[in-house]
Write a structure and sequence with these properties.
Elements lengths: L1 H6 L20 H7 L5 E6 L11 H12 L4 E5 L6 H10 L3 E3 L6 H8 L4 E5 L2 H8 L4 E4 L19 E2 L22 H4 L3 H9 L5
Parallel strand pairs: 1-2, 1-4, 2-3, 4-5, 5-6
């Protein structure tokens, strides 16, 4: 897009970092869900508009199991009101997991995301929301591919979790059914690969 505008005579710098010029205090409503910020917070947004862009929930639960036992870790789940019931099951099963789905305004969700150490997200809106507040995203890519141009703003390509297959990407937006019928692009990603991306550099 910048190249297009430059050809038209309008150039600009890529200097955007966060929509919040200064850190924003957590609201009472957020704190009533999460408690005060004492731990390292990991966001998890496991849903996407299409199955082809979504990591299997049973495998994502394995990621939670590998993370929630670590001392000083709190996992915060993000999703829509329609997805809240599924996420509530994880909140009930695992101590230190908080379900924020459908409980906050978009503004409060963005503020909460700005306090995360990392967001785990599909190629979906939450990847971009976290990017808008300068939060590191470990993104999972199945039918789509970062090279199509939809990676979150300022996100490092090395934090994209994906497997290289001859059939990827099978669509730009992930809206075409998997013609193989096995969703190998997601199923071949192991939970440990995701955890290792999060823990790279001894961040946890």
């Amino acid at each position: 897009y910048r190249d297009v505008f430059r050809e038209l005579g309008y150039d600009f710098n890529f200097d955007f970092t966060s929509m919040f010029a200064q850190p924003v205090m957590l609201s009472e409503k957020i704190i009533s869900l999460t408690g005060e910020k004492r731990d390292r917070w990991i966001g998890l947004a496991p849903f996407a508009a299409y199955q082809e862009k979504m990591y299997p929930l049973e495998k994502m639960e394995e990621v939670i199991k590998k993370l929630y036992r670590r001392p000083g870790i709190k996992i915060i789940l993000f999703g829509s009101s329609a997805e809240a019931a599924t996420l509530a099951q994880w909140e009930e099963k695992y101590k230190g997991v908080v379900n924020a789905a459908g409980k906050l305004s978009l503004e409060d969700e963005l503020i909460l995301m700005s306090y995360l150490q990392t967001m785990i997200s599909m190629d979906s809106a939450n990847m971009h929301f976290a990017s808008l507040v300068n939060t590191k995203v470990v993104s999972l890519w199945g039918a789509t591919h970062p090279f199509a141009g939809f990676t979150g703003w300022n996100q490092a390509l090395e934090n994209a979790v994906q497997v290289e297959l001859y059939c990827r990407p099978c669509s730009v937006f992930g809206n075409k059914p998997c013609y193989r019928g096995d969703w190998a692009c997601m199923n071949l990603i192991e939970p440990l690969q995701i955890v290792e991306k999060i823990t790279a550099g001894n961040q946890l």
